[in-house]
Design a protein that fits this description.
The complex is a heterodimer.
Chain A: E1 4-14, E2 17-28, E3 32-37, H1 43-51, E4 58-64, E5 82-84, H2 95-101, H3 110-124, H4 139-152, E6 157-161, H5 169-184, E7 188-193, E8 205-210, E9 213-217
Parallel strand pairs in A: 3-7, 3-8, 5-6, 6-7
Antiparallel strand pairs in A: 1-2, 1-4, 8-9
Chain B: H1 2-17, H2 21-54, H3 60-71, H4 75-86, H5 101-125, H6 129-137, H7 142-152, H8 154-170, H9 173-179, H10 189-199, H11 202-229
Helix pairs in contact in B: 1-11, 2-5, 2-8, 3-5, 4-5, 4-9, 5-8, 5-9, 6-7, 8-11, 10-11
Classes of the chains: A alpha/beta, B mainly alpha.
Amino acid sequence: MTAKLTAKNVSINFKERKLFEFDNLSFCEGDVIYLQGDNGSGKSTLMKLIAGIIKPNSGDVIATGFAPKKWWQSNSLLGKAVYLHQHAYLFDGSVEYNLRYALPKTRFSPQELQARVAQAIESAQLGSLLKSDATDLSGGERQRLAIARAWITQPKLLMLDEPISNMDKQSQKLVLAMINILKQEGTGLLISSHQTCGLTALCQKHWHISEQKVVESSHIPSFEQSQEFHYVSAN
Amino acid sequence: MNEGWLALMQQAFSLLLSLDPDVWSIISVSFSVSFAALIITLIPSIVLGFFLASYQFPGRWFVTNIVQTLQSIPTVVIGLLAYLLLTRNGPLGDLRWLFTQEGMILGQMMICAPVLIALSQAAFSSIDKRAYETSRTLGASWQRAIWTVCRELRVPLLLAVIAAFSRILTEVGCSMMVGGNILHHTRNIPTAIALETSKGDFAQAIALGLVLLILAIVINFAIGSLRGKAMPRSQ
């Protein structure tokens, strides 16, 4: 059964101000969705809502197609989809510690785990930094490590919040390649950006937050149309 | 005068190195009582500190201020309170803990808990929320995510533990009132130093003082070493 997160009749307020509302949005395995919106429109909030990090003021988010939880585990949305912050959080420790943090030990044999770690290191080109302190990495290296760490878990759904903002071209290329692999593996991807870029060209669906509404369409704004924009970091 | 000091120091070292039973009994009572008080208080206090730092509820401000006030109450006043609780006509009189190590442990728990709660609350208030969110969305259980947060905060949490332990190991007032300073039973290092000094037996007082001094040096070097490793994070 395909893993799917469905948000229905959702409304989100920030203090007294309404941020956005929508009737129905679904994010499932195989989807590659471009989430667009201006700074402050609520892109990160929408992702955190779907990831289960925050709760809506009204409405529900329902998960289907995931492995049932054990009786002692809370049936939280958290952990169904991996959410990568715009500024990725790396745990205190080495690059290797961060990579191995979320290894799904029960799903793979030790050999498979080793191979997956090796592949992640190679894709993110972090081989020479394995023993380095993760907090010493540059912005691009941090983001590559965060994506590699998420990739290792073989997520069914992955949300990337402005994944290539503040990156040099080489890092952008590496991240693009890693995300392409995830797409080929069938991982559902939700990629936010306040403007189009090379990454959004991979997308098949488009969610646009505008005037406090989230509008879904299959039309993706082309990368070329937006060349006049300068790519800047959104906070 | 100098010769007198020298002789006292020689006697003090000889008491320690010759494993004088009275001196080592006092040291043993001191450490066993304080360790017991610390271990019993540790987990509930840290959980309460986490709760106060993480959740908004009516009266949170009041509870926080009460805890902080309790930190600064003189130990002799806490000793008086513990005495009133444990005296035969007191609410806990049936336990018959007055002038026992159990009574001293209870009194030291009352001193230790506010320090641990307040300092762990301060530590948890400083955590980057992304640590918990990242851990959970990568699939960690809430227990593992909290463990990860504690690991990220290990330096301030360890400092809280050391501060609480130092306070109870060196307090005189409560131990004197609740324990009664009975040799081989409830006489600990601070009460013994007070007694021996009043008797004019400076050698034993210096020997016991040296134990506290050595402990203070070890603790401060440990703190210094931890502080040296804990670098501020830019993200």
